[in-house]
Amino acid sequence: MMLLIQYTLIFSSVLILVALGGCFSEHSGVINIGLEGIMVMGALGGALMMKLLPAGTAAPVMILLVVLAACALGAVYSLLLAVAAIHFKADQTLVGTAMNLLGTAAATVFVKAMNTAADVNNVSSIIQYIDAKRSFLVYINGFEFNWFMAITVLALVCSWVVLYRTRFGLRLMACGEHPQAADSVGINVYKMRYAGVLISGVLGGLGGIVYITAGVSEWMFENGVAGFGFLSLAVMIFGQWKPARIALAALLFGFFRALGNVYTGFDLLSSLNLPSALYNMLPYLVSLVVLAFTSQKSRAPKAEGIPYDKGLR
Amino acid sequence: MEQPYAIEMLHITKRFPGIVANDNITLRLRKGEIHALLGENGAGKSTLMSVLFGLYQPEEGAIKKDGREVRIKDPNDANDLGIGMVHQHFKLVECFTVLDNIILGVEPCRHGFLQKADARKKVLDLSEKYGLKVDPDALVEDITVGMQQRTEILKMLYRDNEILIFDEPTAVLTPQEIDELMEIMRGLAAEGKSILFISHKLNEIMEVADRCTVLRKGRYVGTVEVKDTTKEELSRMMVGRNVEFVVHKEPAVPKEVLLEVEGLTVASKLHSNNAVRNVSFSVRAGEIVCIAGIDGNGQTELVYGLTGLEPVKEGKILLKGADITRAPIRQRSTGGMSHIPEDRHKHGLVLDYTLEDNMVLQRYFEPEFVTSAGFLKRRAIRAYALRLIEQYDVRSGQGPVTIARSMSGGNQQKAIVAREIDKNPDLLVAVQPTRGLDVGAIEYIHRQIVAQRDAGKGVLLVSLELDEVMALSDRILVMYEGEIVGELDPKTTTVEEMGLYMAGAKRKGA
Questions:
Q1: What's the pTM?
Q2: Contact list, B112 vs chain A (CB under 8 Å)
Q3: What is the pLDDT of residues B309-344, one digit of tens each?
Q4: Which of B158, B408, B469, B492 could form a disulfide with B42 if both were Cys (CB 3.0 to 4.6 A apart)?
Q5: Mutate which of A178, A299, A306, A312 to test chain B, going by most B C-beta atoms within 10 A?
Q6: Quick one: CATH architecture of B5-239?
Q7: CATH superfamily of this structure's domain B244-336+426-510
């Protein structure tokens, strides 16, 4: 039971972070399909930092540097989308898709090359971080508390405050809803959209490192992030682009994902004798069902996906 | 002594590829006056205002504010100079509150956090002072068009703008809201604000403006004192010839029944009641039947039901005797019904298609335009479009390959009228065909409608403009709350009597 809660929380954290990232991007008016790729890049950044830092680095330093590395790489990678979609007015869905393909492929190539350089017989795309990962964990009465959970709560609160209580948030959302209106009152739509995409890169990258450290202590980059970027988009839509609702939606999806990891611990579930693949499919199946029923009513930012062109009226 | 000028636009020239939108135009706005800017669609009014608002840079000419030359590079500069604008299509974020929309861009903040309390007080004070009733906490998508416009005005006042530009502000308002707006504009001018009022509605200009500058085809025609001029003179300046406000038509000679509607009921999208309730009427060949009524009394839904845009709940529609109650739209169209829709952007045109493709939207499948293998005959389409453009005088930048979106509203409407009439229908359903058009275009479209009638077609006209109803119709049906509450003869009735029916104060028979 404890394990189920623990996994639910950590997987929900991933979904919350990445969905919030998508939320910022879409509120600025840019659809970010590329979250999957951004996650992989963030994961790579974080994993490399864990690998490079010497054993025995103090936990707070480790946490800070790993988070920074993940965020930084995610942000840099998201610039691809920003430049292509905002500056060059490319089709946002296409750019995002390309980023997903590129993200996993580039990370795999990079890690393989790195592994092979260290040992010619090692052609795997695996990075191990079993020691470094311990810095993130605190055990409380058998519950494995992960500092990422705290960071997620912080990110959630900050997102809500930024979106609904600051000038930046008001202007950001205006750009996603009616960029011409924002422009007519002197808001630089391009700048705001860059900001939105970059924030999504930061949060997406962070989500990536949280995902690959949840439950395992090494990661094979060939696997990418197994559709979690897309699942986060589903969470974002189910959460109606609102932070609080995103958190609730993420808990739901996180729960089903966690079930796949720990169902063997429940007598009732294991006695059903269902194949494990079914449990692993659960979050994706749930997202299909949920979206099929709710997306009718969903209200996306109006201008999302449309490149802003000052000249058009 | 003459009042000083608040804004002077001197010898402004602005060119676009292919056309000179403004050719050496001079406009002087006095402090505290309401100055109308009059011109046909495409005369260069909007371009001139965009230059003043910093959206476009003129190639030649200068702008002076209070006698000093200024450069306006973007809307921020305009705002700093105290110039504000209510755009024809409102620039409001629909899912924001009224207050958020007003403060957007000039938010009162401490350390980046919004401080809305002060803003709210200022907005309420302004709203009180100028009689601009708004609910600051309502979402823009929930409020009436009139209140949205008041929000736009408050946006300017909140920024302490001294020069207020209204770009065709009455196009979207009901008659009552127009009266209110006129009152508000007078109040603003009395407080010392200078107002530029862009319009092509002569009645409104005569009523509210002090002076009027007229543009025609990008050129300056003249500036006149409104009290020294007449409607006829203004329209002559605008169009360049005498315009007839009266539609000439012979008495109708109705023949066989073309359209028969029995007990039609259409559900509403907005509420659970039916928008159209048990409506029966008929339209004969050779007559213009007009449906009058205040906006929102079921006219839109009635037309949706007739044309097949929405399913019919109950009742029967017969077109030339054939039951088309559940027929698909194409069958109605090929069966002899033409439709000039109320919303030309939504239902009339594919805005990002070319003009020629829009011209054949309902005919591309005919052998004239497509080979048996399914390939379009582009040359035939081009030739057809060229003929319609020529015959119906549809003006555009690049002829048949112009993207519909880039055309002026009047010419978009002409393109639709051309397409629908050229189909040679038996029944023409025209909904608000002259909405937002200038007198020249209105005159033209009215003539086309009468010509259709005289050619033995039936016309069902839905209009909110009482003048139009009285001028065109042979029979008037008044709709009120989804029902037809009266049938009137335009020759014997008066606008006042019609108004009573429209307001639901009087009803006859069924």
A1: 0.78
A2: 166-168
A3: 989 999 999 999 999 999 999 999 999 999 999 888
A4: B408
A5: A178
A6: 3-Layer(aba) Sandwich (3.40)
A7: P-loop containing nucleotide triphosphate hydrolases (3.40.50.300)
